[in-house]
Design brief:
- Helix 11 (about 200-215) runs antiparallel to helix 12 (about 220-230).
- It is built from 17 helices and no strands.
- The protein is globular and about 70 Å long.
- The longest helix is centred in the first third of the chain and has 18 residues, at about 5-20.
- It has helices spanning about 5-20, 20-25, 35-40, 60-75, 90-95, 120-130, 135-150, 155-165, 170-180, 185-200, 200-215, 220-230, 235-245, 250-260, 265-280, 285-295, 300-315.
Length: about 325
Amino acid sequence: MNKRRIIAVLIAFVLTIAATAMWSASTIHREGDPDAIVLEDSGAEAGTADQPKKKGGNKVVKVLVAPFKAFGRLFGGDDTNKVHRMTEKDAERFESAGITRIEDARNQPVKRDTSLTSAKEHLEAGREYLVEGRYNEAISELSLAASIDPKLTEAHNLLGVAYDKKGFGDRARDSFERAVKMDEDADTLNNLGFSLYQNGNYRAAVDRLKRAAKLAPADERILNNLGLAYCRLGKIDEAYKAFARATGPLTGNLNTAKMLERFGREDDAIRYYEAARQIDPNNTMALRRLADLYQRVGRATESESARAALAMAQNNGPNNTGK
């Protein structure tokens, strides 16, 4: 049996194992801020504004497709069109080179429409790349737009989003700060505030997010980000108020309880889950977490009561599970 055949058999075996693990593949290696993901699981918006969903983001699909990509490479498949990982040095080239980009063996040239000449044209090209999840190309085009017109606020804002998606937090924050200095609109303030939050600068994050909320008092994403920052400062009552303004009292209580549970504050989490239960006695998420938390803190009677209520709610048909 030759080497290729042995490798092909091994890949087929891996594919079989992946198929049996599909139930868990969608919950691991999730991209983004962990606290924001907790809120998003409830259907609440959080994180950076103007942050498009990456195409092909389904983790199950990625698990199943990977072996086939390996087959392609094994048997001579063309891999020249893949998006290569960008490094900090590559990012520096985008910013320092203006409209000229240095190429090397580690970084494949970005195909660009050379007919584009204006900052707005490069801005729109960068926006399209961002929507498609092609972050290297987005950074290239948006850097060109900002280089041609340094006062183009949206170019700096979207460049920050692209840097954030690539994991370059400091560069993202710098781009958001440039955008805010030129135009303090709600989205740029939100993006800067969330970037500061991700870097652990919670007081500054609250300041920017409060200013964003004044400009857009009904914006769910801004209010949820503000709630997250308040949670990290230990201002739980203020966090609940922000969450409740964003999505209503029921989900506000649930999201506050989830964050408290993440912090290991079981008794406080129980209080907010019980508040959610008062609003919706059949809310299965609140009942399920109460059953577990009461058991964890040694309150067996309350745990059994919550489990009984959960079983009854589930037997009565579909109910609200998170909002």
